[in-house]
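Thread title: Can someone regenerate the structure for this chain?

I was given the following input by a collaborator and told the matching structure tokens would be attached. They weren't. Posting the sequence so someone can regenerate them.
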Amino acid sequence: MVDGLLIIDKPEGLTSHDVVSRVRRILKIKRVGHTGTLDPFATGVLVVLTGRATRLAQFLSGAEKEYEAVVRFGYATDTGDITGKRIEATAAQNSIEKVVPAFRGFEIEAALNSLRGEIEQVPPMYSAKKVQGKKLYEMARRGVEIEREAVRVTISELEAKALDGSLLNRNDDGTYDLSIRVVCSAGTYIRTLAEAIGGRLGLPAHLASLRRTRAGNFRAEDAISLDELKEKAESGNADSFLTSMDAALSQLPFVHLTADEARTTLHGVALRLQSEVDWAVNQPVRMRDARGRLIAVGFYDAAQKLLRPRVVLFPEK
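Best answer:
Regenerated them for you:
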């Protein structure tokens, strides 16, 4: 059994499910999952969990994300990104040729600043979000559009990045690109953010490219390609890319258990703590056995000062 975490650099053109399927075949294991979907046209960090580590998704899927993206001004699309159908009239394109070059840096900054912090987003129809048990994109493909409730997300950082000394770069078709870096909460739609930036500037816009550079503590510079994973697997060294379950949850506090406490924990019985802690109510805590293995994740019951095992990783059921 291969238990741990892989940081995969997802290539363009594959769905997150495709990546999971390929990892499953490469490692010849059944239990593989991921902690946050990337659209097929997007690239970058996809956190993949293998073996027992699939039980840890709930502790990782809500992590902060970081992206590099390109917002294209000139027309909108029905999906909000470059894969969709163009829906803006030609007249809008003609005016953009005159309007966009006149934008100054402080105007772009004002537009971005209005979108920093906690904002509301309406999930796009072309998304994997489920409403009444059905994925929105499945309804969208049938031509059905339903009302969606806005959700609150946090844009911690949003900045424009100059290329060759210019914030706005003209394409051959008369559209203009703005490169941005975004740090945001889980569940943020960068497509929707791109459209909102266009809206603040009074321009039709869509997302032209997207790369996730970080998911929680996992960064693109530490990611591997599927080809690299396959090469290592064929040489019997795939585990050299694997992050342990304990290291994957390094952001969580931990306790070391005695042999008796470990046996109790493996039976799912709550553990009474012998020392004072300052954990928040329901704080998830790593529970290690005498050998230092992560055997469970417990939640802190502050009222009774108990640590209740919620996810027991050993032994296999």
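The first strand starts at residue 4 and ends at 10.
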